Amino acid sequence: MSDAGAPAAAPPPEPVRIGIVSISDRASTGVYQDQGLPALQDWLGAALINPISFQPRLIPDERALIARTLRELVDDAGCDLVLTTGGTGPSPRDVTPEATLDVADRELPGFGEQMRQISLHFVPTAILSRQVAVIRGKALIVNLPGQPKAIAETLSGHDAAPGIFAAVPYCIDLIGGPYLETRDDVCAAFRPKNARRPAR
Ligand SMILES: Nc1ncnc2c1ncn2[C@@H]1O[C@H](COP(=O)(O)OP(=O)(O)OP(=O)(O)O)[C@@H](O)[C@H]1O
Ligand SMILES: Nc1nc2c(c(=O)[nH]1)N[C@H]1C(S)=C(S)[C@@H](COP(=O)(O)O)O[C@H]1N2
């Protein structure tokens, strides 16, 4: 039978390379078991339809090492997206935002603003979190708080506020990365109509 006239089958989802970085003095030295990397991997694996190649890193709260790790993930490992967790608070060892700005080409303040709004719904101490999001080359780097439960809270949001991940696929389109497709029950990605490909 001919397929003439039938709509073209959607191309397979594009592969994406994602750096996940857990920044914690105690988890990186074995004082407690790291829960940051598994939480990031679980959430992203559930949310994205694209095949994901994870680049995981577990490191202490050292500014130069964090910056070096972010550069390596983007410039050498070729990550399209890097999510960090931890080190965003006000204590002297919390230096993740500074290290992230050290490697930034440009800052995207909306991510931090939205994240703090979402987190206020869960904890009043959300205002202590100094997360930033930046572009380096063709990659987006986003800081998340260190509490393992904060990862799903900030990425998914809640009834009154969409999670910050909703804006990630379109951002990655705009900076030249792969077309990210999400499972709507975990996270409905927002794209303007003219940027959407046909749904699967
Ligand atoms: N990677 C992690 N794995 C498991 N639990 C974590 C992790 N990071 C943080 N937590 C938990 O969240 C709490 C607050 O995180 P925060 O990033 O402020 O830790 P911290 O006091 O800077 O210490 P550290 O850097 O040693 O994790 C920690 O006290 C810990 O209970
Ligand atoms: N969604 C969410 N955001 C949160 C939290 C949380 O539990 N859930 N903890 C807050 C606390 S107590 C602090 S100190 C800051 C910074 O955390 P970090 O240093 O672990 O990155 O994140 C805040 N943001």
UniProtKB/TrEMBL annotation:
CDD domains documented for this protein: MogA_MoaB
Keyword ATP-binding on entry: yes
Record GO biological process: Mo-molybdopterin cofactor biosynthetic process
Native organism: Roseateles aquatilis
UniProt-listed SMART domains: MoCF_biosynth
Reaction catalysed by this enzyme: molybdopterin + ATP + H(+) = adenylyl-molybdopterin + diphosphate
Domain MoaB/Mog residues, every copy: 19-166
UniProt keyword terms in alphabetical order: ATP-binding, Molybdenum cofactor biosynthesis, Nucleotide-binding, Nucleotidyltransferase, Transferase
EC number(s) from the headed UniProt entry: 2.7.7.75
Pathway given in the UniProt record: Cofactor biosynthesis; molybdopterin biosynthesis
A Pfam family the protein falls into: MoCF_biosynth
Listed name of the protein: Molybdopterin adenylyltransferase
Gene Ontology molecular-function annotations: ATP binding; molybdopterin adenylyltransferase activity
Protein function: Catalyzes the adenylation of molybdopterin as part of the biosynthesis of the molybdenum-cofactor.
Listed PROSITE patterns: MOCF_BIOSYNTHESIS_1
Family statement drawn from the similarity comment of this UniProt entry: Belongs to the MoaB/Mog family.
